[in-house]
Structures are given as C-alpha cells and as structure tokens.
Design a protein that fits this description.
It is built from 8 helices and no strands. By secondary structure, it is an all-alpha fold. The protein is flat and about 60 Å long.
Length: 203
C-alpha cells in the first residue's frame, strides 16, 4: 500500500508533495520506502533464481511490487502518479529480455554443441525474435512515461511483428515477451479508442 499523505497535503500533485515533504524535513521517508521496495525486488529475484532457476512467470508476480514506489526528491524524482505503471512494465520487459539472452548464452556454453553455421543460426534467429518484440514495448512504455501518443497505424505495423516470435522462437522468455507486447498493443488501442470516444462527446 502506498504511503498515505497527510490530510493537508492530499490536494498536492506528486511532485509538489515530495517538495513539501522535503520542506517539512521528511524527504528521507520516500527514499527509505523506495529503498525497501527495491531491496525486496532484488531479494525476490534472487529467490526466484535459486528456487526455480529463474522461472519466467515469476516476474508477473514480482514486478507489481514496484507500484509501491513513491516519488522522492533524490533518486526517483521523475516517478509521479502518472508514471506509476511504468516501472512495472519496464521491469517485466527487461527481465524477459535478459532471460532470453541468458538462455541463448547458456545453450551456447553448456547445452548441446551446435557446430558452425547452426550455432550462429540459433543465435541470430533468437536475437531477431527479441528485436521484433521491442518496438511495441518501446511505444507502450513511452506512453506510460510521458503520455506520448502514437497512431493506430503505427500499432498496426508493429503488433504483427510479435507473431513470429510468439510462434517460432526457441526460447520461452521470448515467447512471453511477444505475448506481453501483443497485450500491450491491445491495451494501447482500447485506451486510444476510449480517449477518442470521450473527446467526441464534448464536440
């Protein structure tokens, strides 16, 4: 649960609230809370790695703890109410991307030996699969960060790129990365549609 604001500060935006807290000598409180959240995140990731070997599905349970982050005046000054979901989606995308890369390197080092061209085909195929998923993640996370809007045509071009990784990738992390990108595309489309419909009501 996010730290409740005192009654006399509830009308302030996240940025003004952080500055007001600093003025009252309470600037350390959000920093301590954010540090605790990040340490809990690291601990959860370490436990996931030790107990499950780094299960992909675990990140969907771990990342939401980043919703507990608060804006502070030192390290997370840019994280306000409008960006509260940005750390969650970035953490999921980053974890799955790193997991995909780690799996490929692990297979090259310790898995069945792939000789010559087959080895590079395996690496190139999975690298391209990850690359195909990144445009949607970039567009969606940029939207969550600063509200930058993109046309439906852009989503229409980027979303189908996730189908080949979803169906053909050798790495489950890449398939999850593509699946998340498709969900993000749908969410972005319906959010944009809702905004348009709401805007038309006032015309």
């Amino acid at each position: 649960k996010k730290m409740a604001r005192p009654a006399h500060l509830r009308h302030l935006s996240a940025a003004l609230w952080a500055k007001q807290m600093a003025a009252y000598g309470g600037a350390w409180m959000p920093v301590v809370g954010n540090t605790a959240v990040l340490l809990a995140l690291v601990l959860a990731l370490v436990l996931n790695l030790r107990l499950t070997g780094g299960a992909d599905l675990a990140i969907f349970a771990i990342a939401p703890m980043l919703l507990l982050l608060n804006q502070d005046v030192h390290f997370l000054a840019g994280i306000g109410d409008k960006q509260r979901y940005f750390p969650v989606t970035v953490a999921i995308a980053a974890y799955l991307t790193i997991s995909s890369a780690a799996f490929v390197m692990d297979q090259m080092a310790y898995g069945p030996r792939l000789m010559g061209a087959k080895q590079w085909t395996f690496v190139l195929k999975n690298a391209i699969a990850v690359a195909f998923t990144l445009p949607v993640h970039y567009v969606f996370n940029r939207f969550l960060w600063d509200g930058t809007r993109t046309s439906d045509l852009t989503l229409l071009c980027f979303a189908p790129l996730n189908l080949p990784p979803l169906l053909l990738a050798d790495v489950s992390s890449t398939q999850w990365l593509a699946g998340v990108a498709l969900v993000e595309s749908l969410v972005k489309y319906f959010m944009s549609r809702h905004v348009r419909i709401t805007g038309l009501k006032y015309i």
